[in-house]
Amino acid sequence: MAGIVATIWGLCMFFSADTRIGLSYKSKIVNELKGRSYFESGTFGPILTTSKNFRLSFASPAVTMMSFYHTLNSLWTIMGTLDYTSWSSFDYIKSYNVAQLAETNLNVITPEKFRNVFHFAAAINYAMNDNLKFRFGLGYDQDPVKRHYRSILFPNGRAIAIALGARYIPFKKIMMDIGYLHSFIKKVSINSTLDVTQAHLTGHLNTTADILGMQLVWDV
User: Fold this and answer.
1) Cβ pair 153, 114 in contact under 8 A
2) How far apart are CA 31 and CA 193, in angstroms?
3) Which of 49, 63, 110, 173 is the most exposed place for a label (fewest CB within 10 A)?
4) Are 31 and 57 a contacting pair, CB within 8 Å?
5) Which residues share a beta bridge with 182?
6) What pTM was computed for the model?
7) CA distance 208 to 157
């Protein structure tokens, strides 16, 4: 797999010891995946045809992000993020030399036609003491998928996320973090046809996401 990144840059502005704003930009990434494609008969059947020149191409979006951080006092800190994701660059997934039953390989161009969206997030930290800090955050994601192009591969929907976390500092240079996030994703409908098999999919998608993360930080 190969990716091409044109530009990544960031800027942080300090208005005071307690307030700062950051701005960052990442350009789109052109992804090229190469390998082999196999056509099999049934789930565990023999491989009937093979393509050694399979290639998959798609573009990941550019992201522009602005973040805000402000210390209210020794106990409370607030922060927020607004980012704009240029999903319109993810217009097609292009597959070349896909193996099929016939001897001739197949080229498949799947339209995705994503739209540009905003993401909002806000959080607050509470320092109970010098060794223990609690965190709470909210996030909102717009839906980048257009209704007529929605497929089973991308069951996206408008989403609201709630996150809880904590940081514990048992020693001067050792920090332990734990966080949990639950995402409420809007129910969406699907009405699409698969390009290769021409199978038609109709129904609704109910999606949720739960993420639990832990880390140990050693400041050397």
Assistant:
1) no
2) 25
3) 173
4) yes
5) 162, 210
6) 0.73
7) 10
Tens digits of pLDDT across the chain (220 residues): 445 555 666 777 777 888 899 999 988 888 888 888 777 766 656 667 777 888 888 888 999 999 999 999 989 999 999 999 999 988 888 888 887 776 777 788 888 888 999 999 999 999 999 899 999 999 999 989 887 777 777 777 889 999 999 999 998 889 999 999 999 988 887 777 666 566 677 777 888 889 999 999 998 7
Which CATH homologous superfamily contains domain 2-218?
Answer: Outer membrane protein transport protein (OMPP1/FadL/TodX) (2.40.160.60)
Q: How long is the chain? A: 220
| Distance set, CA 162 to CA 40, 77, 129 (Å) | 43, 18, 24
Do the Cβ atoms of 168 and 179 come closer than 8 Å? no
Q: Are 51 and 37 in contact (CB under 8 A)?
A: yes
